[in-house]
Input
Amino acid sequence: MVISTTYPAAEQQVQSSTFASRYVREPLPRFKMPKNSMPKEAAYQIINDELMLDGNPRLNLASFVTTWMEPECNKLMMASINKNYVDMDEYPVTTELQNRCVNMIANLYHAPIGDGETAVGVGTVGSSEAIMLAGLAFKRKWQQKRKSQGKPYDKPNIVTGANVQVCWEKFARYFEVELKEVKLKEGYYVMDPAKAVEMVDENTICVAAILGSTLTGEFENVKLLNELLTNKNKETGWDTPIHVDAASGGFIAPFVYPDLEWDFRLPLVKSINVSGHKYGLVYAGVGWVVWRSKEELPEDLVFHINYLGSDQPTFTLNFSKGSSQIIAQYYQLIRLGFEGYQNIIENCIENATVLKEGIEKTGRFDIVSKDVGVPLVAFALKDSSKYTVFQISEGLRKFGWIVPAYTMPADAQHIAVLRVVIREDFSRSLAERLASHIEEVVKELDSLASVVAIGASHVDSVVDAVQEGNKGGTAARKTERDIQAEVITSWRRFVENKRTGVC
Ligand SMILES: Cc1ncc(COP(=O)(O)O)c(C=O)c1O
Output
C-alpha cells in the first residue's frame, strides 16, 4: 500500500481527491496494521467501497432484525452514540428510559405489578443475552431449592423443542445445563407440549416455549403447556416453571392476537424475553428480559451499584455497551404507541399474505408457516427431484434477494424450506415482485432440468444408434453423461456450501 504521506503540501492538495484509489497503489494489508497513517478521506473511501459489496440490508429477507427507522430516531441514536450505558451516574436519564421500557413491556405482558411498584427486568444486547440471564435465574433458583432439600443439584436440565434457536444451545453448553429437546416430525415443526411435559423430571429447571419459532414463525401452545405442567407439578410436588422465548412474537401477539394467552396471565410463566431489534423495531443491539416478580430473580445474581445515590441493581453479562438502542426503543414505544405497532404488524401480515398467495399460485410449493404467528412465509418444494430450495435461494440472489434455505431440525431434517421474513420496510410491491421473481427462478430451473433430461435422452438415442455395431458408443455416452453429472454435482455442492443461516 502506498500512501502519499511524504508528498509536499501542494501535491497533497492534488492528492486529496475523494477517490481512495488515487492514494492506494498496492493491496491493503489484511493481517498486520499498516505502518503509516492514511488520510481520513482515503480510509473512508476504501472501506465504503468494500462495503458496497455487502448485501443490501433491506433486501435481506433472512433476518427479523430491523433495517429501517425514522430519521428523527436515527438522529437521537447518533446523538447518543458516545454514551456508555453503564455510566449510569453520568447518564441517569438514559437509565430512566431503560426502566420505562421495562415497565411498558412488563405491562404489555400482563405482569402482576401492584400500584406504585416497578417491573423487574433489564435491557440486554439481544434475546440471546436475555435468555442467558433468564436461564441463569432458573438454574440458581432450582439449585437453591435442591440444596435446601439436601438433594443433588449437579444435573440441571432444560426442556425445549428441537426447533429452538442456537442461543439455547449456547446457554446449555456455556452454563452446563443439559438440553432435552422434543423432536419434531414432518408437518409439525414446533414443540409438542404433551411430549415436553413427559420429558420434565425433578432436575428440570424450566420448560422453554417459543412464541414465534425461528424456523416457521409458528407460536407454540403455551397455554396448553401451562395446563399440562400444572397437572404434573401437582402430581409430583415439583414446581417446574415456564420461560417464554418471545424473541419475535413478543412484539406481535399483544397487538394483533390480544386474546392469545401466552404471557404472565399463565401462572407458570416466570420470565419472558423479547428482541427489541426485531419487531420492537429498533436497529440491531437491543433485547429485553422481564420477570413475573422480584421473587423469580435470585438476589445473589444481582449486583448493586449506588453511583446514583440510590440503589441501581444490575444483572447483565457484560459491562459497557451503547445507549443508542435503549433510547431508540423508548422512542418507538412512545412514538408508535399501541396503535402504531398494531398498524405496522397488521400491514406486515397483509404483505405476508400477498407473498404467500403469489407463492401458492406457482403450484410448486407447500406453505409450512401458519397464518397465526410471526409474519413470515416458510415454504417447501412439493417436488425436489429436479432441483432443491438451495438452488432457488441461489437463483434469487441474482435479483438481489437474500432468502435463506435450510433443513429442519431432528426428526424432520429431510424437509428443506425457504423462509421470507416480512418486516416493516418490506412493502406490498416488494412482496409482489418477490413472488414473480420466485416464479421466474422456478421456470428457469424447470427449463434447465428439462434441457438436462432432453440432453440425456438425446445422448441415449445417439448412443443407441451408434451402438448398433459400433463399440465407440459406450465411450461417447459416458463422456456426455459424466460431464452433465459433474456440472450438476459441483453446482449442488457449491449451492449447499453457501447455505444462508437463519437468525
Ligand atoms: C426464537 C428466537 N430466540 C432467540 C433468538 C436470538 O435473538 P437475538 O438475535 O435477539 O439474540 C432468535 C433470533 O432469531 C429467535 O428467533
Remarks:
- Residues 64, 126-128, 165, 167, 210, 214, 245, 247-248, 275, 287, 503 surround pyridoxal-5'-phosphate (CB under 6 Å).
- Residues 1-14, 469-477 have pLDDT under 50 and may be disordered.
- DSSP finds 13 helices and 13 strands in the chain.
